[in-house]
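Two proteins follow. First one:
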Amino acid sequence: MADKRHMCLRGLIILCALLSGISGVDDNQVFCSSGEDVRLSCNNALSGCTSTTWNYSNHSETVELIAEGIKTDTERHERLSLGSDCSLNIKKVTKEDCGLYTCRQYVNKQQQGTDAHVYLHVLHVSSSSSQSEIRSGGSVTLSCQLYYNYDLFTCDSSVGSEGLELIWVNQAGVNLQTDSRFQISFSSEQCLSSLTTTLLNEDHNREWRCQVKHRNQLKTSATYTVKYQTPTETKTPSPVTISKSPAAPTQPASVDSTLIPVSSSNSEKKSSQTTAAASTKQEKQTTHTPETTSDTQQDKWIFTTNTEMTSAHTLIRVIVIIVEIAVFAAPTVILLQIICVRRAGRKNSLHEKEIEMSTVLQ
């Protein structure tokens, strides 16, 4: 009972501070969505900002961010900067950035004036489903939560006394609360609004927006865009192709050194037909070899192919040698034929002279 009275008393004090201020303190509330850049004003700043100090508080923890115009916080160092008017700029706000920010002035280590307070509330939208689960016909639940300083505010009091609202709207700005297709629930304990629906085909690339209204004024909004995963094309198994070209197979150096081109010969045609047949046979075997062929079968196939190619080149070599022998032996054969013809001519002439002599004698 005492705890409830304490919470009610604290809520009244905070409410009075927000409406009228206490001891001249200027309180301010800033709403933004996660991922945005935000600017927090310092209403008690002195010229030059060298006397300005910014502190951050949340859950009874206080961290010094800026001291006499110089950044001191290492965790958010890259995202913090000080404006020319001593305002605090925060880049890419996260839900952990929510809380109380205090701007304080020091001159000669003596505080000047009163503190300027800024309460930062961060709106964050997320999905309960992973990207692979978001598809037409499936159910999706979107969560819109407002993060704030739990030690200073309660969502119940803010909703009841200050008119705080979390509203789901479509791309046209129409409230989805009245659409029976969507089931919307609100938890004041967590300041969380949930939207559940079954996705349709036309929901691809559609935006749903969660808005925060404070005293009937739109403060900020966060958008969720539905993205269906593009189905990946299934790849059919492709035949295994050997990297070695059939026109230039791997073979011993001795076989390559004996390849001599021969023109205008039947033997060349036969050898080329044999080579073409071997190449065609190799291509057929390569094309019909499935991707799941084991390394042992591939090695055996390569060995057989190399053996056939070696045999073909050996046959070419033998034919070339025969042709060379025929070319070198041709002059000798022709010379022998000439000698034989001349000898035959001499014998015929002698025989005719003998006949003439016998005739004269008679």
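Second one, unrelated to the first:
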Amino acid sequence: MDESLEHQTQTHDQESEIVTEGSAVVHSEPSQEGNVPPKVDSEAEVLDEKVSKQIIKEGHGSKPSKYSTCFLHYRAWTKNSQHKFEDTWHEQQPIELVLGKEKKELAGLAIGVASMKSGERALVHVGWELAYGKEGNFSFPNVPPMADLLYEVEVIGFDETKEGKARSDMTVEERIGAADRRKMDGNSLFKEEKLEEAMQQYEMAIAYMGDDFMFQLYGKYQDMALAVKNPCHLNIAACLIKLKRYDEAIGHCNIVLTEEEKNPKALFRRGKAKAELGQMDSARDDFRKAQKYAPDDKAIRRELRSLAEQEKALYQKQKEMYKGIFKGKEEGGAKAKSLNWLIVLWQWFVSLFSRIFRRHRVKAD
């Protein structure tokens, strides 16, 4: 991260610094649970004799051209049995697809993706001829013969490259450089409050830093990659907090903390998300850990004071509530005592009258 950006991110609670830190592997988990294909009411657009598309969410900008490197998430089902056989959202790993160079079994999916804009989500119907064909696939993924498919697809974004260069063909420096450019684009969008678009850029940056790639790195290259990847995760977390998607923000902070357990920004943001969810004790623990590693950070102290004030206010509220309950019991007790005295007095009067009456009756006899 360059010096100017680092300077912007020194104070955790400033809007500019929140804008320039954070990320997450999955920025827009579909609203449905994903066990079955989504029900879509939009009109089907015929893209090919064997491919059609129904838009779930509109995208923005232009569509990718041939040889563009597209980054996407999808879920896939067999159309007849509705058996789900693949889910990249669940795996938290975007897929890279170079249009015009896709595998034969993804030809129908590629036609659908070529018609989509960044951020667009759609239900793509693919005939078996442009999918896994007459034989199907009996390894992974497991697809039966002659199976028509349904894809719920979201295009995160794409890189326009004339030669259609895939990540696997890039050098380490090229991949890290491409990821860093995406991160900077995301920062600019975040400053403009275009949060969804910013998250798309951060997620594309992370796509260059996949687990298979990171596993091969060591020394300075690993440090360079983490210096891009982890700030992207933190920046998406910041976006998600602003969007009130606190559980997702916590997940993205956790990703950073698995790599850097002493990262004060990750601890701070996770604490903010937990506090919003009412997890006060856990939030306080995160803020105190963050303060340990960044003792001069005013924003952390401010959050700790805010938590203490909230807890004090809650205590006072509970105290007043219980006071009212006990006061009601005391007043009720006083009334009960007064009533008891009246009953005793009445019983004594009746008893006295009875004794006098009995004595008078005996004398008369």
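SUMMARY FIELD: Residues 227 and 264 are 15 Å apart (CA to CA). The first helix runs from residue 3 to 8.
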